[in-house]
From TrEMBL:
The protein's required cofactors: pyridoxal 5'-phosphate
Binding site for substrate: 136, 310
GO molecular function annotation: alanine racemase activity; pyridoxal phosphate binding
Family from the record: Belongs to the alanine racemase family.
Annotated Pfam families: Ala_racemase_C, Ala_racemase_N
EC code(s) of this entry: 5.1.1.1
Entry-linked InterPro entries: Ala_racemase (IPR000821), Ala_racemase/Decarboxylase_C (IPR009006), Ala_racemase_C (IPR011079), Ala_racemase_N (IPR001608), Ala_racemase_pyridoxalP-BS (IPR020622), PLP-binding_barrel (IPR029066)
Function: Catalyzes the interconversion of L-alanine and D-alanine. May also act on other amino acids.
UniProtKB keywords: Isomerase, Pyridoxal phosphate
Pathway this chain belongs to: Amino-acid biosynthesis; D-alanine biosynthesis; D-alanine from L-alanine: step 1/1
Catalytic residues in the record: 40 (proton acceptor), 263 (proton acceptor)
Source species: Streptococcus cuniculipharyngis
Record's protein name: Alanine racemase
Domain Alanine racemase C-terminal: residue ranges: 242-367
Amino acid sequence: MVASKHRPTRAIVDLSAISANIEMIKEELPQGVKTWAVVKADAYGHGAVAVAQHLESQVDGLCVSNLDEALELREAGIKGQILILGVIEAAHVGLAMAHQVMVTITSQEWLEQVLLTGQDLTGLQVHLKVDSGMGRVGMREASQVNQAMEVLTQQGAQVVGLFTHFATADEASQDKFQEQLARFKQILAELDDKPALIHASNSATSLWHPEGVFNAVRLGVAIYGQNPSGTSLPLPLDLRPALRLESQLVQVKQVAAGETIGYGATYTAQADEVIATVPIGYADGWLRRLQGFSILVDGQFCEIVGRVSMDQLTIRLPKAYPLGTVVTLLGQDGGQAISATDLAQFLGTINYEILCLISGRVPRFYR
């Protein structure tokens, strides 16, 4: 999908805000803890290459979801450490090695598949994943971890890290979190040898659970200025959202009472109204279900009326404004603000998804 740079709809990313957020979090961590920035999913919609280039000298490493995301960073000139958090295909381990990308090993079965390919693993750097209770990927017993480390060492690979992931670090109840933490510590205690890096802290753990911080953290949505819990827990730091989404009015018209707007004629004007069109729609990640949500024009909330279509939406204005007037869909305007969490609450989802939904058709501009 081509980025539509000749259209007024755009995402403006404040790279300095991301850096400032990282520094605020680092100040609360114990001295010497390594910081890894998570830039998977195109840096949560912010643009992985631009964010990685900006952060490379500030953090100790970068985390991505898959091999293609890692290769994108290498092709963009990123030289630092990159860890793939997900499972890659066994046949592609050599490609990861060739680009000095660390891979995650989650099971003995996967490791056996790699060995069957006959690839030389000398110099391969890996992190082992422990499933302490998330239930997705990872080894559940210390014996499995010990065996994997033994086999990898015999094959010439370097086990440089061990990690787990918490399921409920962003929730008020600590029961499941403490259960997972205890399980992870038990597995650590039973290991024959421990890798240099031990990490369990995502954004939520780093913010609210200092007891879950080992010697490295993986900072994700928080560095982009978002509350990992949505509204469940108050942020302990004044993080700054890094992404603003804006567009402009491209048509403004007077509509008489009784006239309908949009596909399905789902909105009927109750009086003579001023209706404006904004060039953003569900192909841009602004979902059809956002009819009824309000966005900002001149510091005033204006309701989306009629269905959101593929490329456009319509809003009811308090008065006529000139074409080209700025429309704020995410961000601040005139003392008012719309956050990704506001959108998430309206849609019944999380702020992570809102940011990741912003499609590649929306160009990113950086400052």
